[in-house]
Amino acid sequence: MKKTIVIGMCLGIGAAFAGDLKAPFSLPSARVLPKGVRNLSYKNVMATAENKFASNGESVSIADPFFKNITFADVIKGKLDPVDKGAVKQAMLSIGASETDSFGQTTGQININATAHVPVFAWGLTNKLTTAVAVPILKSSQNVSTGVIQQNESLHNSMKAALTAKGVDAKVAEFDNKMVDPVQSKLEDYGYKRLENEDKTQLGDIRLVAKYLALDTGANRIVVSSDLTVPTGKDSDVNEVVDVASGDDQWDVGAGVAYDYVLNDYWTLSTDAAYTWQLPDRNPERIPMYSDSKVTPDVDGNTERDLGDIAVVNAGGKWRLEGINLGAGYSYQYKGADRYNGNAYSGARYDMLEQDTVQHMHAAVVTGGYDTMSLFKAKKFPVPLSLTLSHTRVISGMNVGNDPITALDFSMFF
Q1: Quick check: 285 and 238 in contact, CB under 8 A?
Q2: pLDDT by residue (tens digit) across 163-178?
Q3: How many domains would you assign to the chain?
Q4: CATH (domain of 10)
Q5: Are β-strands 137-150 and 400-401 bridged in parallel, bridged antiparallel, or unpaired?
Q6: Which helix (DSSP H) or strand (DSSP E) does residue 360 occupy?
């Protein structure tokens, strides 16, 4: 049931990656800076996390794992002590109940708002080679609540009477407490921190990019790029079941190619493709006991982890007239399955961590903006500036968030 939120930054070749897929918020482009020209930009990316596309492609709440029937089977599985398991099972049999009988349903809600502030500095080292560095700062607000809907009060009372009759009165109070808020109770039993509202500011993963202009005929431009993601962000806390992470604690290496076709002074069509290798590492992980829940008391602090590599293809078009520009684009992304191994528990339990880690995403982005480039060249404005607003919608996907993203990009050249 663990939910990790990571916000990724883009720079030149779509989205930068930190573990999972993130919706893009800019259009592809095969442009580099002229020699000696520097660019300082500020990107403000606003996102929420309330919904996602599940493994079957259906849109569900990210709090969906909180909604679960409380059956005798769940109560028995939740007991770590074999004596406690036996006591519950005997009491169940004594009242003629079965493991499928339900006491009610757990409920919950998760609301997350995040804003990424990303200063980016780029420099044209030559007329063909541009380098850049992006340093994201993530501010997030997390609100979480859980509860329970009692649906079988008579079964609840019968169970308490059976526990009393078997001379385990101490278990009656424990049973009552667990039924008040079973989610929090189970998390505390397994050594997790309590679910609480939280606001925090974190440094994200710093990204270094190099872009090389391989071809420029005027009508056709091709740029090849490489990038390195430095794990300066913070991964999700292994002791929190819901956490807003700013990174994933491992290095990424990427490569890409972008192509522009300049139709005329007004229209440019662009496309790009990129591949990111997420390098293997070791990381603390909670190791599941059951395939239907990743909530577990067992932690392997040295789990071998290899997050799936990511492939991205983007296409878009932009219209520009006297500084005004409008654009639209489409993005397809795919991430392979994560791989986990370790020696602390059986291999089958590490395999459970790999469930639902394959991801794909279809997204559309629209942009609008204004720049002073023409005015600057005509010596009618002192500084070349640009301001761009973008909005992204995730159309469909699997195991990815589907909430919209809005971004504002302000740039100046000097």
Answers
A1: yes
A2: 677 666 556 666 666 6
A3: 1
A4: 2.40.160.40
A5: unpaired
A6: strand 359-371
